[in-house]
UniProtKB/TrEMBL annotation:
GO biological process, alphabetically ordered: anthranilate metabolic process; L-kynurenine catabolic process; L-tryptophan catabolic process to kynurenine; NAD+ biosynthetic process; quinolinate biosynthetic process
Subunit structure: Homodimer.
Alphabetical UniProt keywords: Hydrolase, Pyridine nucleotide biosynthesis, Pyridoxal phosphate
Species of origin: Pedobacter cryophilus
Catalytic activity: 3-hydroxy-L-kynurenine + H2O = 3-hydroxyanthranilate + L-alanine + H(+); L-kynurenine + H2O = anthranilate + L-alanine + H(+)
UniProt protein name: Kynureninase
Residue numbers bearing the N6-(pyridoxal phosphate)lysine modification: 244
E.C. numbers: 3.7.1.3
Protein task: Catalyzes the cleavage of L-kynurenine (L-Kyn) and L-3-hydroxykynurenine (L-3OHKyn) into anthranilic acid (AA) and 3-hydroxyanthranilic acid (3-OHAA), respectively.
One Pfam family in the UniProt entry: KYNU_C
């Protein structure tokens, strides 16, 4: 990819961008009347303009039908999630019956571990990435304790080699083989939240299956960001949140994937009536009979307003086309990488070290920068100029231009400000 370090080049790229008009479908936060530079889709995606309309529509049905809204009307709420599964399936590389939306992410991690963490005899350990998002660490730790194991013994973490920032697939495979007699489950992120590294999910899944372990992924940072093929890779289960790259409201509804090969097995699960066979759910019979597919893992009544926000956003995805979004994302993040290298050149040293892999296959929108010094000061100065990425302790700035609402100009504005702030802070000697 050829890039040029000028505002004119960024503007030209925006003009040629076929997804450019999608920015108009989002509400971009403003400061003193001017749109800010928002580069934080890795934490909370922005609000699509149609979200309010989708939610209002459900408020109208509620007003009009009351409880009958579940069964009657234009879109009975009992089946409201079905269209969401249809919209989600291509984004996750799944069959619609293998996905559903429910609860929040950490809750789903727990529910899926109830089903897919099946410790037996000496095979009771879980392999995970070192430095996983804390909620995943706490969930896994509490699950192994709940089953009566000692977390220090039952959880095996894989860390990058000394002096390296990201994990090598060969080291993950080596760990899997080393512990092949002990591993019951491999539970990895699809993308590490801190480094932005995409893991080789296909290879990890195969290696896990080869040693008789089940394999699941937390796709919080991957869903709606990078392409995945959960069905073809034969991943056993996965879950994700919808509030990052899928722009479906703060704390918005999460999603799960269960591979169809598990549908017939009588897996243990924490059941609730919303997972009961849909056509007999209101018979109120004794004895749980799950609905076929991922829906059988649902527990509680659908939160329709959250689902409405999710549907609104997925409709925008459908219109834009995920493959088009990914193609733009690779260019946008490539431009960001190029400009950060230019900043380093202008500063005469690698002041900002990009720890996210260089290969586009191994990263999504996000780049993570380790600041040589004064990282927090630099981050705060960016925020003061209404340039929003996020800061992760101890020394990383994460920046994520996303294809639906970010522009090449946003990326240019970030790099421009980064250089200006760094030059001001740099001791003159
Ligand atoms: C990898 C990962 N796991 C878990 C969470 C927490 O999810 P939730 O608070 O929705 O349960 C996040 C983000 O908040 C995350 O990035
Ligand atoms: N749910 C949140 C609520 C408040 C602030 C941040 C979050 C995030 O999602 C953080 C994100 N998971 C991260 O990768 O840091």
């Amino acid at each position: 990819m050829q890039f040029t370090n000028t505002l004119a080049f960024a503007q030209q790229q925006d003009q040629e961008d076929e997804l450019q008009h999608f920015r108009n479908e989002f509400l971009i936060p403003k400061h003193e009347g001017k749109e800010i530079t928002y580069l934080c889709g890795n934490s909370l995606g922005l609000q699509p303009k149609n979200t309010r309309q989708f939610i209002n529509e459900q408020l109208d049905y509620w007003e009009k039908y009351g409880v009958e809204g579940w069964f009657d009307g234009e879109q009975p709420w009992l089946a409201y999630h079905h269209e969401i599964s249809d919209l989600l399936a291509p984004i996750l590389g799944a069959k619609p019956i293998e996905v559903t939306c429910m609860n929040n992410l950490t809750i789903n991690l727990h529910l899926l571990m109830v089903s897919f963490y099946q410790p037996k005899g000496k095979k009771y350990k879980i392999l995970m990435e070192g430095g996983a998002f804390p909620s995943d660490q706490y969930a896994i730790e509490s699950q192994v304790k709940f089953r009566g194991y000692n977390a220090d013994d039952a959880i095996i973490e894989v860390f990058p080699r000394a002096g390296e920032e990201t994990l090598r697939t060969e080291d993950i495979l080596e760990k899997i083989n080393k512990h092949k007699k002990e591993l019951a489950l491999i539970l990895f992120g699809g993308i590490n939240y801190y480094t932005g590294q995409v893991f080789d999910m296909k290879t990890i899944t195969k290696a896990g299956h080869d040693i008789g372990a089940l394999v699941g992924f937390d796709l919080a940072h991957a869903a709606g960001n990078v392409p995945v093929q959960l069905h073809n890779w034969e991943v056993d289960f996965a879950c994700w949140c919808s509030y990052k790259y899928m722009n479906s409201s703060p704390g918005g509804i999460s999603g799960i994937f269960v591979h169809e090969k598990h549908f017939e097995a009588d897996l243990p699960r924490f059941a609730g009536w919303w997972g009961y066979q849909l056509d007999k759910r209101f018979k109120m019979d004794k004895g749980f009979v799950p609905e076929k597919g991922a829906e059988g893992w649902q527990v509680s009544t659908s939160p329709i307003l959250m689902m409405a926000a999710h549907k609104a956003s997925l409709k925008v995805f459908e219109k834009a086309g995920f493959a088009n979004m990914r193609a733009k994302s690779i260019r946008l993040t490539g431009f960001l990488e190029f400009l950060i290298q230019q900043v380093n050149e202008a500063l005469g040293e690698e002041f900002f070290k990009i720890i996210t892999p260089k290969n586009p296959e191994e990263r999504g929108c996000q780049l993570s920068l380790i600041c040589k010094q004064d990282g927090k000061l630099i981050f705060d100065a960016l925020v003061k100029q209404q340039i929003i990425g996020d800061w992760r302790e101890p020394n990383v700035i994460r920046v994520s231009p996303v294809p639906l609402y970010n522009t090449f100009k946003d990326v240019f504005a970030f790099a421009d400000a980064l250089l200006e702030i760094s030059l001001k802070l740099k001791p003159t000697n």
